[in-house]
Design brief:
The structure holds two protein chains of two kinds.
Chain A (H helix, E strand, L loop, with lengths): L2 H9 L6 H20 L2 H18 L9 H17 L3 H25 L5 H19 L2 H12 L4 H8 L3 H22 L1
Chain B lengths: L2 H14 L6 H11 L3 H28 L4 H24 L4 H13 L1
The chains are: A mainly alpha, B mainly alpha.
């Protein structure tokens, strides 16, 4: 059964099909939640809340549109509404995430230490870049996540974030500039 | 590092992320979306009925008992505390307050 059929069945009132829809998108959505919230606890909450909202509003979903875009729009809005407000709490979790991620990345680097030097250097660069992305403010970070990590095009990002395409372009440019500056600073 | 190298690394970062939701989280989400309404609702109704019945019977018994006013108040106070604790125990039944409140909210919305 394909995605459209599953959604049509849910819209017809057969909630059991939600399980199939969750199975279809769980990994991709969870990655997005994790990128946004930067910690497991909030990612779990955001993941659950997104599916609850999807269940509540799926009758409004237009079958002619791409479901993934709609799903990520809900997630981004939930994140914006609930999680961004708790700035103080997030600031603390960011710190713990950074430490946790750095440790994880260092472990990765160590485990790959038998690789040639070029690979090792690339891994280090990646770790620094990850850190730099997490340092960006949400206005710049979310478009970067959607564009590079979720591989959405600029029109889809504009739809998800409810901003003009031109704004998406300028935010992506600004983010890239900042990241380049950060990476220069590292070297 | 130039812009092309940066973009290449950014794409790689997205691919590197292999985090997946735990099976427990997925199951919990599925349950919250389509819980076993029949059993949950029956248990919840039974619990509330038992509590109401218990409170009425205890109050009747105490009001009719040949004891002083202060003693009656004290017994009723402790009965209320006990019933509240028992009721909360039955209703929450080992689940966190947050989970249960979310469930009750969904029951009301449903």
């Amino acid at each position: 059964m394909d995605e459209k059929e599953i959604i049509a069945n849910i819209q017809a009132g057969q909630l059991d099909y939600m399980n199939d829809l969750i199975d279809l998108y769980k990994d991709s959505l969870y990655k997005f939640c994790y990128h946004l919230t930067r910690n497991k606890h909030d990612a779990d909450d955001l993941f659950q809340d997104t599916w609850l909202k999807v269940t509540r509003y799926i009758s409004h979903y237009d079958l002619t549109k791409k479901f993934k875009t709609w799903l990520l729009t809900i997630t981004a809005n939930l994140y914006k509404d609930r999680y961004r407000k708790a700035k103080r709490r997030l600031a603390k979790t960011c710190y713990s995430y950074d430490t946790e991620t750095q440790e994880e990345q260092m472990e990765n680097i160590k485990s790959k230490s038998n690789l040639p030097d070029i690979c090792l250097e690339e891994e280090e660069e990646k770790a620094q870049l990850h850190k730099a992305v997490n340092k960006l403010n949400d206005k710049l970070r979310v478009p970067i996540i959607l564009f590079y990590f979720k591989e959405m095009d600029q029109n889809q990002i504009a739809e998800i974030l409810d901003i003009p395409v031109g704004t998406v372009k300028s935010r992506l440019n600004a983010a890239r500039k900042k990241l380049l500056q950060e990476m220069e600073g590292v070297k | 590092m130039n812009e092309k190298q940066l973009e290449k690394l950014l794409y790689q970062l997205g691919d590197d992320e292999t985090r997946k939701p735990s099976p427990k989280l997925v199951e919990k989400t599925k349950y919250r979306i389509a819980p076993n309404w029949g059993w949950s609702m029956t248990l919840l109704t039974l619990s509330i009925l038992m509590i109401i019945l218990g409170v009425i019977l205890t109050h009747l018994y105490i009001f009719l008992a040949p004891i002083g006013y202060v003693t009656k108040l004290m017994i009723m106070g402790s009965t209320w505390s006990f019933t509240t604790l028992l009721g909360a125990g039955i209703i929450f039944n080992g689940e966190s307050v947050k989970t249960k409140l979310a469930f009750l909210y969904e029951v009301i919305e449903y």
